[in-house]
Amino acid sequence: MCAWNGEPGWAMFNRAAFLADHAAFARFFVREATGPGHDALVEQGVRFAQQTDGATLVLTVAARAGSARAEGIERYQRIRCPALVIHGDADRIVPVAKGELVAKTIGASFHLLEHAGHVPNQTRAHTVNHLLLSFLHDLCRQASRVHVATRIDHTLMNRGA
After folding, report:
1. Residue 1 has pLDDT above 60, yes or no
2. Three-state DSSP class for 95?
């Protein structure tokens, strides 16, 4: 991270700014994550961020930078469970292409939500909950079919014995 020249915006994404004005960075970042029109959510996010301090954020970002270097396609290829990828089309933190890559790599469904930022579970909760419930319902239906097929196979095998 480089020195902070006092400018707002992404220029605040550095150690000096985190330490000098943690609250201002939190307000900027949460506003970027939620997108426009979510002032109450921004205030809630800033209050949440103020439960820590700039020094902790410095350490968190440093640790995240180390893990991000190891976060490549090989890591995603190790995911073997059913998954659902939901991404906001107005995400200013993680590019949509990253969400698409993750979904493609792990064989997951990809849902791009219009007018949603980095936290669609907060800004588009009803839609996200509907997608999650539908995903879980489909998983249960698939598991039930496998269970029934296994029971039929077991029954047929025991009749022949």
Report:
1. no
2. coil
